[in-house]
Specification:
Elements: H1 10-30, E1 36-41, E2 46-49, H2 51-55, H3 61-67, H4 73-77, H5 82-96, E3 103-110, E4 116-129, E5 132-142, H6 144-193, H7 199-230, E6 239-242, H8 243-255, E7 262-266, E8 276-279, H9 281-297, E9 302-311, E10 314-321, H10 328-331, H11 355-365, E11 370-375, E12 379-387, E13 390-391, H12 397-403, E14 413-417, H13 421-433, E15 437-441, H14 444-453, E16 457-463, H15 471-481, E17 487-491, H16 498-504, E18 509-512, H17 517-527
Parallel strand pairs: 7-9, 14-15, 14-16, 16-17, 17-18
Antiparallel strand pairs: 1-2, 1-5, 3-4, 4-5, 6-8, 8-13, 9-10, 10-12, 11-12
The structure holds adenosine-5'-diphosphate.
The site of adenosine-5'-diphosphate has 21 residues, from helix 9 and helix 11.
């Protein structure tokens, strides 16, 4: 059987054609603006859309024609973010109820690459049948850029406000951080001078003064480093580093700082490859120093271990502790400047909250990543990677310096070029005590003159910041006059890159101020005649 029905749609088809005509007229007018147009016959749920409407979402009309037999309200609604469709319906309702003159709503719509794009949908009912809306026309505008910029701005304002708060907290904390070692220095200096103080006490006090001074120096270094990072001035200075030597250095440096209840271990020390890699030694070392010091600070029992492994084109290092661990909520933010889990000045551990942000910036600048795994109460592991650049040939900086033995003898004549009296007196005291003879120059020009005048000078200790010309220039001049003269650069700048500049100027070694007696004598020993 065939059952058929027929309906006269002349009128409906006529309206639709008329709608489409109107629409195309308007479309021609707005085509260049990229705006989407829609014309909706509400009662029959027929939606007419211009090409821009689809293109705005990265589709073509054909894509939609394949998906929908006819375009209707759902053609639009299916692409609106589920959280926003409620807004759309609310707005339509109040517009139909004539509470608002225009329907206007900002929604996210799904694009062809499955992203959400912000669209402003706006329109107005243009035909009513009695109280019921019959036809509505409107536009779609791409406001994605604007909304995302607004979001970014809001985020920037939030961050600025937060950073402002953090800075105030930082200043309060800083004041505490500086005052504590200062009080240590001033207080114990007074006690040292007291006539009742015994020799044993004096020794103990001078140890407190020394460690307080070191703490102050660390703070100054942190501040210099963070400001260099912020002004984009950090540069990577790669040199050949032997992995085994690196871990040896670390184990020597940290063996003593860790409390007795905590063991410090280099995991699989025998498996650390005796391999040379190209890396920024001083930055890598600083990252280790920071992480291990933190681990020591927050671990009262158990062990701290460190190690490395190579993963295709990266080397992964870690520092693991069995300390107090870090709550997941803080795990991201502790890498931000000034952030500490417990920022109360009363807390026991001290610190400026800069260490980890410096480490992360260094590692990222080197082309690596830094992250952590931690559980409250269980301990933390900080991981970091650097690009793996193996080097065939064994020629580390330290080796080159150590090999630079000269004719300089124990007890020989040393020229100290130093304008700061106390720094000079310290070097003089240490060196005279070890039998060396000293000539002193407070300026660069005078130093060059002395080199000309006194052939007996066997070694130069050179301050870099001098009142007349820089220590680098003086070194260059000296090397012209006496190419074999060992020059040890001594600088208070203590910034990364100085070492390389000093070596480039011809200095044979580089010491950062404040120097210790041990460091100064160790450096001298590199230059003594082989027989000594
Ligand atoms: P500082 O130690 O100077 O406060 P850092 O940036 O080095 O600054 O560390 C920030 C914070 O991260 C610390 O104050 C501490 O709360 C937390 N933290 C860092 N390392 C550890 C660790 N190994 N165990 C527990 N907490 C840690």
């Amino acid at each position: 059987m065939i059952l058929a029905s027929a309906k006269d749609i002349t009128e409906e088809a006529g309206i639709e054609a008329e709608l489409r005509d109107n629409m195309f007229g308007l479309d021609a007018a707005v085509n260049g603006t990229g705006m989407g147009l829609w014309d909706w016959d509400i009662q029959n749920d027929n939606l007419i859309l211009n090409d821009n409407w689809f293109e705005m979402l990265g589709f073509t009309r054909k894509d939609f024609e394949k998906r929908y037999e006819k375009f209707c309200y759902n053609t639009f609604a299916d692409y609106v973010h589920p959280d926003d469709i409620i807004k759309v319906e609310k707005k339509l309702k109040s517009h139909y109820a004539r509470e608002i003159d225009y329907y206007r709503v900002e929604v996210r719509m799904k694009t062809s690459d499955n992203q959400w794009k912000w669209i402003l949908a706006a329109g107005k009912v243009c035909e009513w049948s009695g109280e019921k809306p019959r036809r509505m026309v409107g536009i779609h505008t791409d406001i994605d850029y604007r909304v995302k910029m607004e979001e970014k701005l809001k985020e920037a304002i939030r961050r600025a406000e937060e950073s402002d708060k953090l800075k105030s907290a930082f200043l309060a904390n800083m004041s505490h951080e500086i005052r504590t070692p200062m009080n240590g220095i001033i207080g114990f200096m007074d006690l040292m001078e007291s006539p009742d103080t015994t020799e044993a006490q004096r020794k103990e006090y001078s140890e407190i003064i020394r460690s307080s001074s070191r703490r102050l120096l660390d703070i100054v270094n942190d501040l210099i480093n963070i400001s260099k990072i912020e002004s984009g001035q950090i540069e990577i200075q790669e040199s050949v580093v032997n992995l085994k030597n690196l871990f040896n250095e670390i184990s020597v440096q940290f063996a003593h700082i860790i409390e007795e209840e905590v063991r410090f271990e280099i995991k699989g020390a025998d498996k650390i490859p005796d391999e040379n890699i190209l890396v920024d030694h001083s930055k890598l070392y600083q990252v280790f120093t920071n992480l291990i010091s933190n681990a020591a600070k927050f671990t009262s029992q158990g062990e701290i271990s460190t190690g490395c492994s190579t993963k295709s084109d990266m080397i992964e290092f870690y520092v693991k502790d069995t300390g107090e661990g870090i709550d997941p909520v803080y795990q991201e933010v502790i890498f931000d400047r000034f952030r500490q889990v417990d920022a109360r000045p009363s807390r026991l551990t001290g610190g400026t909250g800069l260490g980890l942000s410096i480490c992360k910036a260094y590692i990222e600048k080197m082309g690596g990543k830094m992250w952590l795994k931690s559980e409250k109460g269980e301990g933390s592991t900080f991981y970091f990677t650097v690009p793996y650049k193996p080097v065939e040939h064994i020629e580390s900086d330290v080796e080159t310096i150590k090999d630079k033995r000269s004719n300089f003898k124990k007890g020989g004549v040393i020229l100290i070029v130093e304008d700061e009296l106390y720094n000079y007196l310290f070097a003089e005291y240490v060196l005279k005590d070890h039998g060396y003879r000293i000539i002193h120059s407070e300026s660069g020009q005078k130093a060059i003159e002395y080199i000309r005048l006194y052939p007996e000078i066997g070694l130069v200790i050179m301050d870099i910041r001098l009142p007349d010309i820089s220590g680098y220039e003086v070194t260059r001049e000296i090397k012209l006059l006496r190419p074999d003269m060992p020059v040890i650069a001594l600088t208070a700048l203590a910034l990364s890159g100085d070492r390389e500049s000093a070596l480039a100027a011809g200095c044979d070694d580089y010491l950062k101020k404040p120097i210790t007696k041990e460091k100064l004598l160790e450096s001298l020993s590199y230059f003594l005649e082989r027989s000594e």
